[in-house]
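Bumping with the actual sequence this time:
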Amino acid sequence: MERRNIVESLAAGLVISYFLILFIGCLLWPGLFWDRFVWRFYWGPIVADAGGNAGSITSSYNWVDTLTYGAVLAVSAYFIHRLFVRLKLRMDLDFFLAMIPVILIGPSARVLEDMELFNEPLRYIFISPLI
């Protein structure tokens, strides 16, 4: 097996394993995984940002969610690039012009959420990390 394939498999496996461990942990030990970790570092800040009652949790990024979002972004960008190469898609002016609506919808959706145009549970989808 090529070295690149080993690194790809390892990176994808680590990200998938992380989320699988969190999912199974939340099912089997919700007090430990959900209350002390997922709620505290991921979902609580989203609820607080949406104006809900998140207890003592604030609506700011923390080191855990920042590292997680960064890792997911890096692995996703790499595999999207590999997909583009495999499909022989060129990233030229036409591609970037076609991507403008996709790029603009994120900030636009966030502004609409900040204007409180959405009710629960729809408003949680438009919080920054989930857009």
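The tokens above came from a reply further down the thread. The two ends are 37 Å apart (CA to CA).
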